[in-house]
Amino acid sequence: MSEKIDDKEAALQKKQCDDCYKYRDNLLKTSPAVIFMSQQIEKLAQTHPKYRQQIEHINKQIFSKLEEKTNDESEKSKSPIFIPSKHLICDICPDNTKLAGFHPDLGVLICANHITKSTSFLLESSITHELVHYYDNMRFKVDLSNLKHHACTEIRASMLSGECSWSYEFFRKFSTFKMFGGFKDCVKRRAALSVSYNPICESKEMAEKAVDEVWNSCFGDTRPFDDVYFG
Ligand SMILES: [Zn+2]
User: Fold this and answer.
1) 114: which DSSP letter?
2) Considering 130, 154, 163, 169, which one is annotated as catalytic?
3) Residue 142 buriedness (CB in 10 A; 0-12 / 13-18 / 19+)
4) CA–CA separation, 119 and 87 (whole Å)
5) Beta bridge partners of 103
6) Any catalytic annotation for residue 130?
7) N or C: which end of the chain has fewer CB within 10 A?
8) Ligand 1 mean position to 187 CA, how many Å?
């Protein structure tokens, strides 16, 4: 009996992962934000060996065989380093707090078991959010044991991913959302919520304080985008 349930569960998880990869592949082809962030990460990696090494470190953890494929150094420097189809992985997530996550050693994980018909449209902003973390970790070496570092990357990810556009807020039923003021409030609220999940964060107030302390410098930093679309 239990074996049957396990088979059923395994089949369900396989279907969830297959669907997740379909959503992901579609976004890699059609989403301007996901494509742009992926290109910017690749551009960083091509610009400086220290950035390149960070991605190669992730590569080693997740697909060591690919590393071995090219031994010719001149060939290596020409080939893409950040390969979105390899660095954005679909898998089953144990907790249900989010649709995707970033780990400095493993890259971006998309939670296949949390994608439903009603949440799939949030996937574009979720992946863009994690790619901003990816970019920040390369560029600024984010230290997650420092809440100010964590707050800064969360402010930027919420601001740049589009997750605070009015349509997403409407979906979250914040019906009093007002343009611009509402955008800032949303970025602040979501950044503080993410910081509050950091194991070293002791309270909601501590998370809000960290966000307030870095707000001016991080909310003003839209790199690698020129500007933010507030719609
Ligand atoms: Zn985040």
Assistant:
1) G
2) 130
3) middle
4) 22
5) 107
6) yes
7) N
8) 11
